[in-house]
Amino acid sequence: MKTDIILCGVGGQGILSIATIIGEAAMKENLYIKQAEVHGMSQRGGDVQSNLRLSSQPIASDLIPKGQADVIISMEPMEALRYLPYLSKNGWIITSSTPFVNIPNYPDMERINADLSGIDNVIMIDIEHLAKDNGVPRSANVILLGAAQKALGIEYEKIEDAIRRVFGRKGDAVVDANIKALAIGKEAQR
């Protein structure tokens, strides 16, 4: 088993929380894991990116080469396109459809949608809308994780358990909200 994942978005969207959950689930699967993060100007709305490599065999490098990412999970559609050169031929993009317009020359959504529609394996969902409508507004990132679960190759229950461990110290309400968000994402990608 080998899965190379690029997680990307804008500072404050929960990219590193998703990486922590996936990493925790992978460790319980006895997988090897390597992670590298780029925070950039994340506190000022800049991009955040994480390379997450999972394997049943030892991993030499924590960086994913161009053309080798199995999955790109993006909290923001333009960021998904930024990392497109890293996507493998049969790789998946799981992205939010809601733009985070933080720059004056943000591309037109029609252009972004056209670029994404030219890719074979894309799941694009409005996680912000789903989060608000389902009473979990702070868990949009976990909705996206739920939509990506099958592409990750990690059992759903293992991700649920990881959420319990990662958020357990924050109390039952936070754990329950994130478990609910994971289920919403799983259902939305069908």
Structure report:
The chain has 190 residues and is α/β, with parallel strands linked by helices. Helix content is 41%, strand content 24%. The chain has a six-stranded mixed sheet with strand order 2-3-1-4-5-6. Helix 2 links the parallel strand 4 and strand 5. Helix 4 crosses helix 5. The radius of gyration is 15 Å and the shape is globular.
Please give a handful of descriptors for the protein shown.
190 residues; alpha/beta; six-stranded mixed sheet; 7 helices; 6 strands; 41% helix
- Percentage of residues in helical conformation: 40-55%
| Coarse shape | globular
Q: Kindly estimate the percentage of residues that lie in beta strands according to DSSP.
A: 15-25%
Strand order of the largest sheet: 2-3-1-4-5-6
Can you tell me the residue ranges where pLDDT is under 50 for at least 5 consecutive residues?
Answer: none
Work out the helix count. 7
Strand segment tally: 6
**How far apart are the first and last residues' alpha carbons, in Å?**
24 Å
Oligomer: single chain
Taking Cα atoms only, what radius of gyration do you get, to the nearest Å?
Answer: 15 Å
Mean pLDDT across all amino acids = 92
Largest sheet: 6 strands, mixed
Estimated structural class: alpha/beta
What is the chain-wise order of helices and strands? EHEEEHEHEHHHH
